[in-house]
Every structure is written in C-alpha cells, then in structure tokens.
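Fill in residues.
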C-alpha cells in the first residue's frame, strides 16, 4: 500500500512538472526509463525499439548505441537513431550523445539520485534537441520506484524553437533476476500512458551481463486508444 501511494504521488508530481511546458512534437513519449547508477569501468552496447500505433498509422523507431564509463560516476554513450518515414522506408534519422551522471553513492540517502544530459542532431535537417533532467530511484525491500523528469529544448532553422518536457515512472518488483514485472507510466502535455512491463537480467563471468526490457503502454488521455510497444537489449562488459 505504501509503495502504491508513492507511485500515485509520483504521477501527481509528473503532472505538476508538465504544466508550464509542452510534450514532444513527434509523439514519441514512450522510451527507456533511466536508472541513476553507473558501474565503474562499464562498457555497453544497447539496442532500443519503439512502435507507436495510432489511428493515423504506425511510428517505428530504433536506436543503436555504444559507450561506457569515463570515471566512477559518469558514463558517455553515442547513438544512431533510425525511423520509418511516410513512404515506409527505414533510414537514419538522427545522431545522439548521452551523458549519465550518478550524483550520490548508492544507498547513502533516502533515495538514489542521478542526472541525464542528451544532445541530438537530425541527420538531414537543421534541428537540434537538448535534454536535461533528474533520475531518482527508491528501493523498498524487493520493490523499487524509479522517476525520470526531463526538460527538452528544440531549436534550428527547420523547427520552431520550443521547450518540451517528459515524465516517466516505473514501479518494479524484483521477483527474480530474470523476471522483474513492472508498471510504467509516461506523461506529456498531450499524452498520458500506462501499462505493464518487465525487466530481466542474466549475469555472465565478471562484469558481463545482458539486460532486456519490454513494455506495452496504452494511452488513457484521449478517446483514441493509441498503443506503444517498447523493447531494449543492453549488453554490459
């Protein structure tokens, strides 16, 4: 009961954060829920897939990234972003650079804090996007609550300069390493979505591990029931 109250409180905070800003113009609110931790000497390869189904069609996006820790508390990763266009052709859409920063030692305070910074440039257009925000995680026995709150600024010759925002929440139960069911919520000005998800982890020798995620999110903010499906694979070595 206490955990569900925390989740509901997180949702209310998310609504409050979204009042003065705007949601992503492309509607791709559903994406990865970030955690505030950085492993020393970590290196990783990551693949993400998001399918956003609406009454007007399907938006399909993929990310392929590679990077690693640059010190004990920071990790840098670069991505190639691909999307399917209106003609059904899939191609390179953008480049992205991401910095994750673990702000405090895990378990030192009532919750673990991190920060995220991203810079994205579209491949064929003069459009830039900068993202910054906080990542918070609170462990409660075998359960954990993770919150992401981001501000986004878009600018360039081919887009109207504007501020946007995103809020993501994930309540996860660590039933076992290979199967961790979750409830996820994503908020934007014109989007509120919620649905089930799961996370799995398999450890190899040393620091090597494979992590997989999936989620099915249903929009509840409009009469149209849009659906999003996300998947992610992350190999750390």
């Amino acid at each position: 009961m206490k955990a569900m109250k925390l989740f509901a409180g997180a949702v209310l905070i998310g609504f409050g954060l979204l009042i003065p800003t705007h949601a992503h113009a492309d509607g791709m609110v559903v994406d990865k829920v970030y955690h505030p931790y950085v492993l020393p000497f970590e290196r990783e390869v990551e693949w993400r897939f998001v399918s956003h189904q609406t009454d007007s069609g399907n938006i399909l996006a993929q990310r392929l990234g590679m990077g690693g820790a640059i010190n004990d508390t920071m990790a840098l990763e670069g991505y190639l972003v691909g999307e399917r266009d209106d003609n059904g052709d899939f191609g390179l859409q953008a480049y992205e650079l991401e910095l994750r920063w673990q702000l405090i030692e895990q378990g030192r305070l009532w919750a673990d804090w991190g920060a995220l910074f991203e810079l994205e440039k579209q491949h064929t257009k003069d459009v830039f996007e900068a993202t910054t925000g906080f990542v918070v995680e609170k462990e409660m026995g075998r359960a954990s609550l993770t919150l992401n709150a981001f501000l986004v600024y878009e600018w360039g010759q081919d887009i109207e300069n504007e501020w946007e925002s995103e809020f993501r929440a994930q309540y996860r139960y660590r039933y076992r390493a290979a199967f961790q069911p979750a409830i996820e919520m994503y908020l934007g000005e014109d989007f509120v979505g919620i649905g089930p998800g799961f996370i799995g982890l398999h450890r190899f020798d040393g620091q090597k591990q494979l992590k997989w995620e999936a989620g099915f999110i249903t929009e509840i903010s409009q009469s149209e029931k849009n659906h999003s499906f996300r998947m992610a694979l992350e190999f750390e070595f």
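The chain has one domain: 2-236.
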